[in-house]
Amino acid sequence: MRLLTKYGVTLLFLCGAVFAQKRPVDYVNPFIGTSNYGTTNPGAQVPQGLMNVSPFNVMGSTLNEFDKDARWWSTPYEFKNAYFTGFSHVNLSGVGCPDMGSLLLMATSGTLEVDYRKYGSTYSAEKATPGYYSNVLDKYKIKAEATATQRVGTTRFTFPKGTNHILLNLGEGLTNETGASVRQVSETEIEGSKLLGSFCYVNNQAVYPIYFVLRINKKPSKTGYWKFQRPGAAWENDWNKDAGKYKLFTDYKDILAGDDIGAFFSFETAEEETVEVQLAVSFVSIANARENLKTEQPKGDFDAIKTAAEAKWNDDLSKIEVEGGTADQKTVFYTALYHALIHPNIFQDVNGEYPAMETRETLKTTGNRYTVFSLWDTYRNVQPLMSLLFPDRQTAMIRSMIGMYKEHGWMPKWELYSRESYTMDGDPAIPVIVDAWMKGIRDYDIDAAYAAFYKSATVTDSSNRIRPDNADYVKYNYVPLRDSFDNSVSHAIEYYVADWNLAQLAKSLGKTDDAKMFAARANGYQHYYSKEYGTFRPILPNGDFLSPFDPLMGANFEPNHGFHEGNAWNYSFAIPYDIDGLVKLMGGKKNFVQRLQSTFDKGYFDVTNEPDMLYPHIFSEIAGEEWRTQKLVKTILQEHFTNSPGGIPGNDDTGTMSTWALMNMMGIYPLCPGRPDYTVVTPVFDKVTIHLNPDFYQGTSQIVIRKEGQGDYIKAIKVDGKKNSGYKLAHDKLVNAKEIVITTGNR
Amino acid sequence: MRLLTKYGVTLLFLCGAVFAQKRPVDYVNPFIGTSNYGTTNPGAQVPQGLMNVSPFNVMGSTLNEFDKDARWWSTPYEFKNAYFTGFSHVNLSGVGCPDMGSLLLMATSGTLEVDYRKYGSTYSAEKATPGYYSNVLDKYKIKAEATATQRVGTTRFTFPKGTNHILLNLGEGLTNETGASVRQVSETEIEGSKLLGSFCYVNNQAVYPIYFVLRINKKPSKTGYWKFQRPGAAWENDWNKDAGKYKLFTDYKDILAGDDIGAFFSFETAEEETVEVQLAVSFVSIANARENLKTEQPKGDFDAIKTAAEAKWNDDLSKIEVEGGTADQKTVFYTALYHALIHPNIFQDVNGEYPAMETRETLKTTGNRYTVFSLWDTYRNVQPLMSLLFPDRQTAMIRSMIGMYKEHGWMPKWELYSRESYTMDGDPAIPVIVDAWMKGIRDYDIDAAYAAFYKSATVTDSSNRIRPDNADYVKYNYVPLRDSFDNSVSHAIEYYVADWNLAQLAKSLGKTDDAKMFAARANGYQHYYSKEYGTFRPILPNGDFLSPFDPLMGANFEPNHGFHEGNAWNYSFAIPYDIDGLVKLMGGKKNFVQRLQSTFDKGYFDVTNEPDMLYPHIFSEIAGEEWRTQKLVKTILQEHFTNSPGGIPGNDDTGTMSTWALMNMMGIYPLCPGRPDYTVVTPVFDKVTIHLNPDFYQGTSQIVIRKEGQGDYIKAIKVDGKKNSGYKLAHDKLVNAKEIVITTGNR
C-alpha cells in the first residue's frame, strides 16, 4: 500500500501514456443542444446534481440574437448569443418554459457598475466539459471558470491588476417571479433568498424560495448592495437622487429585500490573481445552505472540485462503453447520456432535509429525494433508461414520487422543487413506475403507488388536477372537446396509456377486476378514430366528431382543437400497447403501414416533440416492416442528432430527446413503457458494453451488444448465441445476456 | 388588602364621582398639530414609546387634499384628508421629512382587494385620546381602534357579519425606501422586515430595517400574500396573467420579499365580532420583536392595554398641574406636554438589545436607550424641559448620546434609529449635555462627552461630518460662503452656540485653556455683522461680504445664500449667550431694541421655525424692555397655539414648538441653553404646580408658580417670599423653591 501511494502518481502517469485513449467523459460536448431550442446549457454540474452553474447570456444587449424578455425563452444560455451577464445558479436543462436561472454571479473591473445592461461583456475562449465551464470576458480581461459539487457552485475568476468586482444579481433570472432578500453575514459571506416558480404559467401558485449562502475567499476592500429604487414624482427626484435608479448601499449590511437587488464585493487584485466564490443553495433554509457549503466544500479548492466532478461524470458515463463509430457519433452518444443524467436531480440537503410536496413542511430522507420530474416526457425513455443503467437511482426516484403522493395526496405530473406545475397531459407517473415494476425494480411501497394511481384514475371531482377531465373520461371513456383549445384528445390518449399500464400492474398485484377495468378503458382510443380522415379526431360533447376538421391544424406548436403541441397526425398512431388493434382499426396492415409511412414522407412527423417519437419503431411491431424502423432511425439520427450546438431537434425535454438518440445508437429502444422489452434497431457502434448494477441484476455483470457485418439493416439477432425471435428483445433476456450479436446487411 | 381588592372597583367609581374633575390626560387633544404642517399624529402610543399606531390617510385617493406622493410630505395623518388606508406602525411626530410610517394595517369587508387605491375608505366617528385612537370605516362599517404598549401596537376591529379581511401592506409608507420581506409562521402569525431610512435625503446611506411580528387572535379561513408583479412585454402578458398586477399568493407561506408586497387574513365573522391584531417591532431582529410581544402583551387584552397606556400618560402629564386658564388653554398646555413626551423614544428591546450607532452591532443596555434625536430643534427647550421634569430620562438620553459617540466615534446630530442623518446644522449635542450638566444632572461619563465635543470642535478633515466646514471655521472663526446654498452662516451660528456651551463645560471641568479658546471662538459671530444692513451677512472666501445682498431672501423656507430655513433677519439676533455683545455690535440698546422689535412689526419674525424662536425673550435681557417679551409671548400663544388641528405653527419639530408654548404658558422659558436659568414670562395659568423627581431634586418636592393680580405684565417676582432680582430665574433657585409668586398688572 505504501508503495502504491509512493509511486501512485508516476504509475497513473504511465497508464495515461500507455492507454492514451479518450475516456467517455472526454467525448462529451456540453454545447450540444445549446441552440436550435435544445435549451440545454453548458453549465458545470455533477450527475443528477442540484447545482448547475451556467453561463447566462440571454439578457441586456442587442448583441444577443435571443433575449429572455423579448420572447418566450426558457434557457439561461444560447450558443448564438454574445453578451454574458454572469453565471446563473440552479438551472433547468432542456425544458420549454422559463423558470429558475437566477442568482446571477458576475465579475467586472474598473468603476463599479450594477446595471446588467452595462456590466455585461462579450466573451471568448469558451470551454465546457462535464463539471467545468470557462470563458474570458473580453471587456474586462477576466477569466471566468465554474465547477460544482451536488449543491454548491464554485466559480473562479482570474483578474487583471486593479480594482475588480464580484456581483450577485438577485433581480434578474429566467423565472417569472421576482423578489429576493440578502444579508451580509461577514465581509466575505452573504446569505439570502429568492422567489422562483410559476413554471409554464399553468399554476401561478406554484412558487417556492431558493435559499443561498455565498462565500468568497478574498477579503474585499468594499462591500455593499444595490437596489432599483421606485421612480418618484418630478418634485421628489429633485431631492431623492436615487429615485428611478439603481441605488448603491455601501454602508448597510442588514437585510435588504426587494424586486431588483444585488450585492457586490470590490477588490484590489494583483495581475492574474484569482478569487473563488462558493455559492451553496437549499430549498429548506439558509442554515441548510450553509451546512451544504460546509459539508460539500469545507475548503474551496476549485481544481479539486473540478477533478472530482469530472471523475463522477466519467464513472457514470462509463456505464456504457462503445467502440466503433465516428468520433462525432461517440460525442453525440456520450453527450446524450450526459443530458439524460441531469434531471431528475437530487433535492435534499446534506442533512437529508427537503420541503414536502406542496405542504413544504420540512421532512427528512435517508436516501436521495429527487425533483424535476417532467414525466410526460421522461416516461417514454429516460426513466426506462434509468431502470437499465441506474436501477438504484430509479428506485430512489420512484420512492421520491411515492413520497410526493404521501405528502400531497397525488402523484407528480410535472413536479418542480416540490410544487406541482400541472404542465402537459395525462397521468405519466403510472407508466414510469409500472415500467420499472415490470422490469423487476420493486423495492418501494407499491401499495401506496397503486392507491395513488387508482385515485387519479377514478376520482372525478375537481380535486383531481392530474386528470382534470376525468369525469368525462370515466363516463364516456373519451374526453369530449369542451373548449376550443382544451387538448382533449391528447389528454385522453395519455389516460389510455396510463390505464393500460395500470392494468398491467393490477394484474401483477392480483387485482384482476381492476386489471380488466383499466384494460377496457385503455381500448377507448378507438372512439377517436375517424374513418373519413384516417386519423384521431376530436369528439364534441354531443358525441359527434368535430366538424369542420383539419388533421394538420396544430403543426409547429400552434394551438389547435383537441391536440396539444401537435396535430392529429402526430397523435393518431401513439397507442404503443395496441398496435395490432390500431392496425385493425385503420383498415389492416397495408393501409396502416402506408399511412404511418406517409407521416414521414409527407413531413407530418415532428421530430422535435414527444407524441410521435415512437412512430419509427411502430414498424417493428409489424412483421416484415422492421426495415422501415432501421432506416428511419438512421436517417433521423444522422439528420437531427449531431455534434453541434443545434444538434438536438428542439427542447431536450430533460433528456428525453437525448435518450431517444442514445438508446437508438445502442441498438435498443423502449417502444412501449410498461411492456418490458426493447425494439432492436441497428446500432451505430460496432460494440456497446453495458455495465449492470449487481445489486439489481445478477444474471450478468455486463452486456455486450456487437454489430457484425456491413449495411444498415438487421439480418439476425443472437442472444448468447441463440437466435432471437423477431425484433423485440425482452428486458429480462437483455439483462441476463452476456453478448447480443446483431448481424446487419443491405436490404 | 383583600378589602381593597374586593371593593376596588366600587371605591374607584365613588372617587370618580366625588372628584369629578378632569385629569391632565383628559385635556389632551391629539388632533392638535395634525394640520397646518404641524405633522403630529393622533396615533396611539405610550410616553416616550417606540410604538406609535397612527391612522394613515395620505395616499390613494383624490378625496385627500394632501398626498404623500404628490408633494413633500412627512406625516402619516392630515386632519383635512378623508381616505384612510390603514394604521401605520412606528411613526415620527412633528418632523419635516418623510420617513418611517410603514407596516400599514387595514381591515376590509367583502371581496378581497389588495390595491390601496381601492381598499381605502372614508371614516367617521373619529376619536383620539392619549394611548387610544378609533374611527369607523364608512365603506365597510368596521370600527377600528388602536392602542399600544412600548414596542407593540394593538388594533381592534369590530366587524359586520360576513367575510372580512385584515391586510398588512408592506409596500407603502412614508419612508423613501422600499423593500420588505414577510413569512407566515402560523395561520395567526406572520413575521418580517421592511427597509426604512434616507431621512431628509441628506444621507442616503442612513437606512435600517424594522423587524416585526404580527399576531391575530382569530383563526382565519384564508391567508396569503400579495405582490405587485413586474410588468411583462405584450407577448408575455398573454401567458402571465399576473404581470403588471397585484398577484395573490394563496398557497405559499414561505418567505416573500419584494418592493410592493403585503399579507392578508380573511375571516367569516358574526355581527359585531371583534378581532385583535398585535404588531410588535424590533430594530434588532424578528426574534426580539417576538420577545417584545410576549413580554409586553402576553395576552392581547385591548381594553387593559388602553387603560394602562392612559394611566401612563396621566402619570407623566401630572408632573405639572395647572389651575385657572380656560379649558382650551389647559388642552393646549397638556397637549403640548404630550407632544414633548413623544421623542426621543426608547429604542432597546425588552431584553435590552439595540443596534449600535452606525455599526449596527447588537449591544445590550440596562437602562433605556433613546433614539430620534432632532437636536438642532430640541436643544432649545425640549431637552431643558426634560432636565426639569424628567431628569432620570434626561440622564438616560444623555447616556444614549454618549453611547452613540462610543459606538460610532461622534455625537449624534439628527439621529434616527442608530443612523446619523446629518440633517440641519451645528453641533447641537453640546448645548443639550452642557445645559443638563450646568443644571446639576451629571450621572454620565462626562469625560467621554467632553472628548466627543472636543473632537467635533477641532477635527478639520472630512471625517468630521458634524461640522463639515470646520476647517474654514477653525481657520477664520467663521464659515465663508463656498456654495450658493451652503447655509454657511447658519452653520457658523450653531458652532458659536456650541462653542460657548463647550467653554462653560471646559471651565466647569477645570480645563481653563480650552474654556478660553472656545469662549473666544464663540465671539466669532461678530464677523458676520454688516453695519450696512444691520444684520448678519454671508462672507465670501476672499473675506468680503456677499454682494449684492438681500437680507429678506430665504423667507418661507426658500433656499438662500448662507442661511438655512430662514433669512438674515431670522438669524441675526440668535446669539442668546451674548446679548450684551450683540447690543454693542448693533449700535447700542436703543437701536438694538428698535431693530429686534421691527422683526415682529414688519413680519420678519418666523413663528414656524427654530432660529428666531428665542427672539421674544431677548427683550427680557435688556432692562426695561421685558414687557415686550411678555406682550409678544401672549400674542404668539394666542394667535398660533390653539385647540385645533392647525394649532401648532408648522412642524412641531419633535415637540420643540409645543415646548415653546408649554414653558411660556408655565411662566418660564429657557432662553439660553447652557446657561442654567429661565426667562420669566406671564403665566397663562393662575397656579402651576411642578412635581420634581426627588432622586435629583431634594430642595423641594414641588414648585408652585402662582400668578397674582390682573394684567399681562409682570410687576414683581417673589421666590419663597423673597423678591427675585430681574426677570431671569436661576435653575437652582427654581428647583429649590416652594412657591414663586408672579404679580402681574397693566403696563
From TrEMBL, chains A, B:
It comes from Sphingobacterium oryzagri. Monomer. Its cofactor is Ca(2+). This is GH92 family glycosyl hydrolase. One of its GO terms (molecular function) is hydrolase activity. Residues 27-282 form the Glycosyl hydrolase family 92 N-terminal domain. Keywords: Calcium, Hydrolase, Signal. Residues 1-20 form the signal peptide. Residues 288-745 form the Glycosyl hydrolase family domain. SUPFAM superfamilies: Six-hairpin glycosidases.
